[in-house]
């Protein structure tokens, strides 16, 4: 999951970056453990500091030199990592059908744009085409994947990513204005948060039906800077839930997440400043519905990188607990029922 195709501007040298070093299930072939074949040179990097390990310090091409420099030995690891795209930590795969491809049908080459804004431009991220998805699976060695199932896999993949972004937007809407205002929102509980989101969705749909332009959102919108798959590095929460599932399978289940992603988001503050926030996403399989469709659960929350992130998670969880424990939801339901009865009595 969490897989976009990051096209970049040209003519910047490749940058060595950390590799995920993970192998997800066939349904999500977005990581490459051993990248050996040549790929197009990635040419944009979200890291600007020359002291950052992702930045490849190279001499300018026209810099004067007194003597030909000795070529530094380049390790195999550096050569491999330099082929990865720094925006999504993935190799750049072709969108063309390989000559040796075992696929039985031609797959679409078009890529669907997402609703997720990029952090390095005014455009949105794009999802891989079915052909790119199939090429990635071939690269991983999944040669028995039926080509006629790839389009459905891409559709599910895109659907999950859109859902993940909606949840991240909810977190950002609550906490980007600051902790003080966020606490007031959290006191309404998850029920109140969902109710406000439903109101916004209804008003947006109504404006669209009336052919009106979208209403201007008073809050700046977050943007996705980059992302990384780390399926072999379970989060502490996933480890705890897996352990509890082994001890109490009826209460917690015993299936660990099949994938984990880190999304780096640019939080737009009201004062115009930008803060990078890392979100962790655990992907759980929920079995299969009676209709035969698979079910997935996504656990999305800010990573505990800062005390502020810890406070945000505590506030959202604590606000919901207080809302339910104090009977606020019961009182709200009673008030709603009384208002409906009063309205029906007048009519």
TrEMBL record:
Stored Pfam families: Cyto_heme_lyase
Region (Disordered), start-end ranges: 1-129, 212-231
Cellular component annotations (GO), alphabetically ordered: mitochondrial inner membrane
Known EC number: 4.4.1.17
InterPro entries reported for this sequence: Holocyt_c/c1_synthase
Catalysed conversion reaction: holo-[cytochrome c] = apo-[cytochrome c] + heme b
Biased composition (Polar residues): 48-58, 75-107
MF terms (GO), sorted A to Z: holocytochrome-c synthase activity; metal ion binding
Keywords: Heme, Iron, Lyase, Membrane, Metal-binding, Mitochondrion, Mitochondrion inner membrane
Superkingdom field: Eukaryota
Keyword Protease listed: no
Enzyme kind, highest EC tier: lyase
Biased segments, Pro residues type: 15-28, 61-71
Main location: mitochondrion
Location relative to the cell: Mitochondrion inner membrane
Protein family (similarity comment): Belongs to the cytochrome c-type heme lyase family.
Function: Lyase that catalyzes the covalent linking of the heme group to the cytochrome C apoprotein to produce the mature functional cytochrome.
Name of the molecule in the record: Holocytochrome c-type synthase
Organism: Exophiala mesophila (Black yeast-like fungus)
């Amino acid at each position: 999951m969490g897989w976009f195709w990051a096209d970049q501007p040209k003519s910047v040298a490749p940058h060595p970056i950390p590799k995920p070093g993970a192998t997800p299930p066939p349904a999500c072939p977005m990581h490459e453990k051993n990248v050996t074949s040549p790929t197009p040179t990635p040419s944009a990097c979200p890291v600007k500091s020359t002291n950052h390990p992702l930045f490849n310090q190279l001499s300018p091409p026209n810099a004067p030199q007194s003597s030909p420099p000795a070529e530094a030995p380049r390790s195999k690891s550096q050569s491999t990592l330099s082929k990865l795209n720094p925006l999504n930590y993935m190799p750049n795969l072709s969108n063309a059908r390989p000559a040796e491809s075992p696929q039985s049908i031609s797959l679409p080459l078009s890529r669907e744009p997402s609703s997720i804004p990029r952090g390095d431009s005014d455009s949105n991220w794009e999802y891989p085409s079915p052909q790119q998805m199939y090429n990635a699976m071939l690269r991983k060695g999944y040669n028995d994947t039926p080509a006629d199932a790839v389009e459905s896999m891409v559709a599910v993949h895109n659907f999950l990513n859109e859902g993940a972004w909606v949840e991240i937007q909810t977190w950002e809407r609550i906490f980007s204005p600051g902790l003080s205002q966020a606490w007031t929102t959290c006191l309404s509980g998850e029920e109140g948060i969902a109710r406000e989101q439903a109101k916004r969705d209804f008003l947006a749909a109504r404006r669209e039906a009336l052919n009106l332009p979208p209403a201007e959102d008073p809050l700046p919108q977050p943007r996705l800077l980059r992302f990384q798959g780390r399926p072999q590095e379970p989060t502490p929460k996933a480890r705890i839930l897996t352990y509890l599932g082994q001890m109490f399978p009826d209460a917690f289940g015993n299936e660990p997440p099949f994938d984990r992603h880190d999304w780096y988001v640019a939080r737009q503050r009201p004062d115009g400043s930008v803060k990078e926030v890392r979100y962790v996403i655990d992907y759980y399989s929920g079995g299969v519905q009676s209709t035969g469709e698979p079910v997935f659960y996504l656990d999305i929350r800010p990573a505990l990188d800062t005390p502020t992130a810890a406070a945000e998670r505590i506030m959202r969880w604590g606000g919901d607990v207080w809302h339910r424990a104090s009977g606020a939801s019961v009182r709200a339901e009673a008030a709603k029922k009384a208002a409906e009865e009063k309205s029906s009595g007048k009519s």
